[in-house]
Write a structure and sequence with these properties.
This protein is mostly helical. The protein has 2 domains: about 80 residues, Glutaredoxin (3-Layer(aba) Sandwich); about 130 residues, no CATH class. Helices cover about 55% and strands about 5% of the residues. It has a 3-stranded mixed sheet with strand order 2-1-3, with helices on one face. Strand 1, helix 2 and strand 2 form a beta-alpha-beta unit. Helix 2 runs parallel beside helix 4.
Length: about 230
């Protein structure tokens, strides 16, 4: 994939999508898939994982990815904002269930999966905590994520409890539904997000999902960690 720099993207019309470049970052990849599903064309904008991204901040006010900017509209960074934009601009089957009760359930489940303080948020805390407080303090000097999330043994234990409860509930929902999809009777955004974020439970092979060695190590450690904990 080719990326343009943020300072170039500001002058381009249409949809600009800032994505973590050159690695399979699940937030970025799932955002791409949401727009691809709805056949919405976009310009890919480079965001450097764990970088300062000053030019991106100067343009959008945000450092992380994904960020969706359509024409001169406000930058969208939350998963639901980005999904709603894709639903508005695109075509084809909606990724939101038609039934309001099912839709509310899907949105709630997705937020518990990838929203702030959801499963992925807490999994990141656990992954950053590998190596203990000494490593976290050292890494904070070069990786802003350690400052964003913070680290302590208490935070690690709370993150483990939070993540475990979410995963347990997802397992129960899956058992109840017994169908092909996580929520409802057709593809929803929740299924797309789960495809990419479930790498934290079982990492895809290098052939199926190439990634930098350091990132694969973190994913593999996460998968081994959860395999030793999951009672279901």
């Amino acid at each position: 994939m080719e990326y343009v720099r943020p300072e170039q993207a500001r002058a381009i019309a249409g949809l600009r999508l800032a994505l973590t470049a050159h690695m399979p970052a699940p937030y970025s990849m799932s955002a791409r898939m949401v727009f691809d599903h709805h056949q919405v064309p976009y310009t890919s904008v480079e965001q450097v994982g764990a970088g300062a991204n000053e030019d991106l901040v100067a343009w959008t006010g945000h450092r992380n990815a994904p960020i969706a900017v359509y024409n001169d509209e406000v930058a969208r960074v939350g998963w639901l904002e980005i999904l709603n934009l894709a639903e508005r601009l695109g075509k084809g089957p909606s990724l939101l269930p038609d039934d309001i009760d099912t839709r509310m359930q899907m949105i709630g489940m997705t937020n518990e999966l990838i929203g702030e303080n959801g499963w992925v948020w807490n999994m990141r805390l656990l992954m950053l905590g590998v190596g203990g407080a000494e490593r976290a303090e050292k890494e904070a000097t070069r990786n802003p994520m350690f400052k964003d999330y913070g680290y302590s043994e208490a935070a690690k234990n709370q993150a483990l409890d939070n993540a475990s409860r979410v995963l347990e509930r997802f397992a129960k929902f899956a058992q109840v539904s017994g169908g092909e999809y996580l929520c409802g009777d057709r593809l929803s955004a929740l299924d797309i997000y789960w495809v990419y974020f479930s790498n934290l439970l079982k990492t895809l092979t290098h052939e199926d999902c190439p990634m930098p060695r350091g990132l694969r190590k973190s994913y593999d450690l996460s998968a081994v960690y959860w395999a030793s904990l999951i009672p279901f």
